[in-house]
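User: My instructor asked us to take a sequence, write out its structure as C-alpha cells, and then describe one feature of it. I'm not sure where to start. Here is the sequence I was given:
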Amino acid sequence: MLVYGTLLLIGSYLIGMLYIFSKTQKRCTCTHCKTDIHLERTTKPSYFKRYYNFLPLKAYRCRRCAKTFFIHNETPGVEPIRMDEQVLSTAPRTVRKEDTVY
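Assistant: Let's start with the prediction itself. The C-alpha cells for your sequence are:
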C-alpha cells in the first residue's frame, strides 16, 4: 500500500513538472496575443513556490488576454519591451486649471 502511495505522489509531481514546462517559453511574448508590450511580472503561484521553487523561472501575465506563462531566468532579453518615453510624450495632453501658472 505504501508503494502505491509513493508511486502516486511521484506521478503527480512529474505531471506538475510537465504542466510547468508546457507553460515555459523561450521569448517574452504572449503566444495567444502575439504581443510583448502588455506583459507584466507576477508572483509565482503558491503551488509553484511550495513544490517547484528550485526551478529558475520567472512568471509573467499578459494584461490583454490574462494568460500566464513562465520564462527561464537566463534567457537573453527576458524583460518585456517597455513603451518608449517619446511615444508617451507625443500623446495629446490636457491642461488643467491647477497646472496653469499665473
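For the description part of your assignment, you could build on this observation: The beta strands are 24-25, 39-41, 57-62, 68-72. Try explaining in your own words what that tells you about the chain.
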